[in-house]
Amino acid sequence: MQEFEIIKKYFSKLTTNNKNSLNLNDDVFFDKSKKLVISIDTYVEGTHFINFKKPDLVVKKILRSSISDLICKGVTPKYYFISGSGNKDSFSKKNLHLISKSLKNEQKKFKIKLCGGDTVFSNKLSFTITSVGFSNKIIYRNQAKINDNIYVTGYLGDSFVGLKILQKKIKLTKNLSNYFEKKYYNPTLQAQLSKKLFSFANTSIDISDGLIADLEKLINRQKLSYKIYLNDVPISNNLKKIIKLKIIKKIDSVSCGDDYQILFTANPSKSRIISNISKTLGIKISKIGKICTHSQKSQIIDEKNKKITLKNKGYSHKF
């Protein structure tokens, strides 16, 4: 069963009409009266990260991916809780030192504080992170409007290539390999843009499962469709190089997730303010498509103006 099928069938009723749960269809819990915003994520070795040979980098990545849920909602992360299950090898003194040092650096970078957690012995390594922020408003899912422009921040696809290199499925030069591996372990979070989103975004989500998969989650309870122009989806110069060498296709690289960039929609009248904020903050923001009526089928248009059919729209939380 898919993730949302499970939620709808077994857990939605348990919220007992608690509006703060947002129908279990958003990245966060939001209690407006208390200005409280919470997200929670679990990461399992072999599923969400390959192995624990670089514990400092793994922990850095999962913390960033967790607080990304708040950032894309327009909320500044303030506190986090971390729980881990593992054995004496995964939680050796050396690894614990590296984990602690890495978290300290991340706390300084994002001005967040550790507030608690738990440890459990297990031969299966996993982490669960709860992120907490405070705000009197958030940017919800499912608030897109017909004719909204679709935007994305930064560049997409580098992280996926980094994963393929680590899995030894792609072989590149040392410099290129180092570049893509760094992008995999160190996703760029657009924290500076977070609060600015309220001035133009109708709805938003972070790209964790893939551009198309997350776009469909963004509008999953609305009778809408989308048109994405692949040529406008931003990618780095290094990714362009390996696409040119036919090592990987652009559509595959940008639709497989782990980018943690912000995907949002906005009224066309907001294009100037978006452009100005992009320049002021030095953050790349690209218009990549449009929200359309339900009567139109969702489309991905390639560089030759032809429709693309995707077999895999992104990471699937399937049980």
Structure description:
With 319 residues, the protein is α+β, with helices and mostly antiparallel strands. The protein folds into two domains: 3-134, PurM-like, N-terminal domain (60s Ribosomal Protein L30, Chain: A, 2-Layer Sandwich), CATH 3.30.1330.10; 149-301, Phosphoribosyl-aminoimidazole Synthetase, Chain A, domain 2. It has helices at 3-11, 55-71, 93-110, 158-166, 174-185, 211-218, 237-244, 250-254, 271-281, and strands at 29-31, 36-44, 77-86, 113-121, 126-134, 149-153, 203-206, 224-229, 262-266, 285-293, 299-301. Strand 1 and strand 2 (36-44) form a beta hairpin. Helix 4 (158-166) packs across helix 5 (174-185). The model has no long low-confidence stretch (mean pLDDT 93).
State which percent range the strand residues make up.
15-25%
Using only CA atoms, what is the Rg?
19 Å
Q: In terms of structural class, how would the helical and strand content be classed?
A: alpha+beta
Question: What is the total number of structural domains?
Answer: 2
Helix percentage: 25-40%
Total helices: the number is 9
Distance from first to last alpha carbon: 5 Å
- Please mark out the parts with pLDDT under 50 across 5 or more consecutive residues, or reply none: none
For this structure, what is the CATH class of the largest domain? Alpha Beta
Major sheet: size, sense and barrel closure?
6 strands, mixed
Query: Secondary-structure element order, as H and E?
Result: HEEHEHEEEHHEHEHHEHEE
Principal-axes geometry comes out as globular
Trace the largest sheet across and list its strands.
Answer: 7-9-6-10-8-11
Instruction: Please name the CATH topology of the largest domain.
Output: Phosphoribosyl-aminoimidazole Synthetase, Chain A, domain 2
